[in-house]
Amino acid sequence: MEFLSKYFKEFYTSRDILEKYSIDYAYLSPILSSKRKLPKAVVKIKNEEDVKKIIELMKEYHFPIIVRGNGTNTLGATIPIKEDTIVLDITSFKGFERKGESITVFPGTEFNEVGINDLPLIPTSFYMATIGGFVEGGSLGFGSLKNGAVWDNVLEVEVYTLKGKYTLNGSDVYSVVQSAGTTGILTKVKIKLVRKREGIEILKKSFNSLSEALDFSLDLLGEAEFISIRNYPMAKEIEPETTWGKWNVIYGIDSEKGFQLRDIVTTFAGAYFTVVSKTKLPYNSVDIPLENLNKIDTQECYIDAELSKSSGQYFSHTYFIGCSNIPMIGKQFNLHTYKINDRVEEKRLKYILDFKRKVDPDDLFNPGKVDF
Ligand SMILES: Cc1cc2nc3c(=O)[nH]c(=O)nc-3n(C[C@H](O)[C@H](O)[C@H](O)COP(=O)(O)OP(=O)(O)OC[C@H]3O[C@@H](n4cnc5c(N)ncnc54)[C@H](O)[C@@H]3O)c2cc1C
């Protein structure tokens, strides 16, 4: 792979760098982290010309690649699992332009750089994630209760594949969104904007029963940017100094008081991630229709129900930590598999699989992460 150093100034093969790029935030999962291999080399990609060059070289030398943003995904999406993988660090490929009701962004741009006031949704990792990484690997976040999931808000994507460059819009964007880099290199994305928020205020309310917490939350739908329903153990673990009830609703609404960013980060940023890191307990999540949410009523383990909307449907993205029984009252969102088949819903998965078969039959883009 030394030939790559002829074309790219930033080309790395030292052991410490390869170690760093062999793992992402999936270090939390013993199952996922046990699968990692060292990449062969790391290359920094700075612009579209670099992407074109890599594609040319892939065609000639037939090597596998993984594109990497800031590596904050928790699902092993940037862990190499095949030998001889080249990791492309795309974090220097930055820039964005707001025009009318949309924003067009180069993939390495971070949420911090764009500002979060008018984006329809942002991941709770907004202080460290790239926008390209969120589009390729994320799903829900602040704002998704009002505005839907990432795939509901992407208007257009530009992607480089071994069969050429594609500009996709309408439902064709599903071929790329949440595909974890398995269908090509995302070079540009156009996202809907929403009315500028002046701020988000975080409020908390405690209840003696789950049914009261649910009734209160259902009344907030349409008004809140996010709602998280936590049982006592979960709420206490995240914020030990607050007095909590059996069930607690933590919610964010638009406010003239500005953004309580610190609160947003400490209260919400990967709440399950924080609790699992502290307790080391087993964890998983289930997407539960709201009408079944009354069945999660226990204080014996940690539960966090994050209300969301995807393709017009409300549901709860629910984390269970240390629970001996996870109620199967929805669709499991498996947090211990890197295969996107296990989390992308059928309708959108079909777009990804069809596109993958067309542009990458040899599985060189993030190999092993999708069965097709
Ligand atoms: C504390 C914490 C909170 C989080 N909160 C949320 C949340 O609220 N909602 C949510 O959905 N996720 C959340 N996540 C996980 C989340 O998916 C990421 O934080 C974010 O979406 C990934 O951004 P990244 O730049 O780190 O991408 P990476 O992890 O580097 O990459 C993610 C995927 O995208 C691919 N990729 C990246 N760039 C490109 C490109 N240009 N072309 C092709 N493929 C590419 C990668 O190969 C990988 O498959 C959280 C994680 C943490 C640690």
Automatic annotation (TrEMBL):
One of its GO terms (biological process) is lactate catabolic process. PROSITE patterns: FAD_PCMH. It comes from the Archaea. InterPro entries: FAD-bd_PCMH (IPR016166), FAD-bd_PCMH-like_sf (IPR036318), FAD-bd_PCMH_sub2 (IPR016169), Oxid_FAD_bind_N (IPR006094). Residues 35-196 form the FAD-binding PCMH-type domain. It comes from Sulfurisphaera javensis. One of its GO terms (molecular function) is D-lactate dehydrogenase (cytochrome) activity. This is FAD-binding oxidoreductase.
